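ESCALATION

Customer reports they have been waiting on this structure for their group meeting. Please prioritize. Original submission:
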Amino acid sequence: MGKFSSPRLPRVLVRERLFRLVDDGLQASAVWIAGCAGAGKTTLIGSYLDSRNLAAFWYQVDRGDIDATGCCHFLRQAIARQTAAAAGSMLPLDALASADLRAFFRHYFADLYGGLSAPTTLVFDNAQEALSSPTFRALLVAAIHEAPANVHLLIASRVRPPTDFARLLGNGDLVVLDPDELPFSEEESLAVQRLARPQAGTRSLSEMGRLHQLSRGWPAGLKLLLQLLPAQASQLDADATANQEALFAYLAGEIFEQQAAAVQHLLLELAHLPRMSARMAEELCDSAQAAEVLATMHRDS
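Update from on-call: job pushed to the front of the queue and completed.
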């Protein structure tokens, strides 16, 4: 998927329950959609934009955006493609002091938004990829702060807004869609399973309810189960080993492999324990940061 590519959605559930929450949130300048890997954040935004017939600029954040110079260039380039604005050129940001950097971003977005006359939604997908960078966080803060009435932002991230965004939250310019809202309700889960037919086979209502219980409403988990499990509920538990292996492969790719080497080492040391206290984790890994790392992963993923 390219930097400006919105997702090509398959046949997906219209989640009007969440759409109404986004509608309410967009009375502010921006909505921050926080949720774990596979929670359906990207699908939610894409289907919401389609449902509400909203014009949008979609920006795929990656680790290269830790250097916000490139992000500024790409944004200006994307908007210049669809407006009369000139793409221009960007000066390097690394030499600017933090105060000058904030002023630069304020002027940058005021100028960028000035070329947008029609109502527009700016999407930052996978924002967690660059949130470790103070420069990228400053860019996002300015993008929200400078948004005029005709521009709104939707931000998808595996983590909640860092403390840099506290003033925007306090002023009501930024609203967070709680991660607890993202899992499917049982009604939504049953609707998704009906959409998946005939690939998912024909299941009874009780069998579909069992799949919802197994996935606990996690969208990626339900999708994997629908692909892997037979249509008969009597075989669901018999295939538990295969299901666990598929879920392990997903989590390994989406979460474990994205961690720093030190965090991977810590997780491998703790993997054989079915449960542990914070003190046990710290003693086993000989690390005072072990409990903090686990708490952060629990909160963010």
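Sent to customer with the following note: Residues 186-247 form one domain.
Escalation resolved.
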